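step: validate -> pass
step: tokenize input -> pass
step: predict -> running
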Amino acid sequence: MTAPSSPRWAWMFLDTPRADAERSWRFWSEVTGQAVADRRGESGEFATLAPVHGDPWVKLQAVDDGPGGVHVDLDVDDVHAAAAHAESLGAVRVGAIGDEVVILRSPGGFVHCLTTWQGEAGQDREGLTSILDQVCLDVPCRRWEAENAYWAALTGWPWRESDEPGYASVSRGAPMPLRLLLQTLGEEDGEVRAHVDLACADRRADVARHEEAGARVMAEHHFWTVLEDPVGRVYCLTDRPPRPAR
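step: predict -> pass
step: emit ->
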């Protein structure tokens, strides 16, 4: 039986302090090859990265409070039924925007939204050498089991433990445009936070391309590179083929 919270589409939100938003948006537009489009809101605080083909899945938001970050919106058929299901799984309702958006915190404190599906249905990855397709939840040790159980039950997507200790994924695969990766942090407790990852066919080439666009390399690992964008957002380039999310 399909859970009431099973997503019809998923959105990755890049939340950026207003003073840095234009600079950040230009960078992400350049490195993804997607135009900043559909500016909206009272002061133009929202926009969407529009791919050449297929439906978009990345939204941009300029925020007035806090350092920004990343959050996820899950599009569902019935927002309030989905929110009630999320609460039964341990989420805390933070607020709502009309009848179309409910804002929640996961058991580990990660803010996310349930939103009304508008018909998005397909992502085109044909010919791409890299793609922004993964939200990585950085989970303190004490939150690990509860956070994994929550996201698997909320989405209804398959949960897979990685061969690499301390990693797991929650992913439906195509046509869903993004996947969730969960990784344990060194700290014992605290709130779950997140960063974004790109899948790269040639990570070394993409590192050079991102540096040219203004990013700074922070660390190199066996199969991923940690970078900081021009306004201080930390993200990763990973050795994953940019085929449909798995």
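step: describe -> The two ends are 22 Å apart (CA to CA).
step: cleanup -> pass
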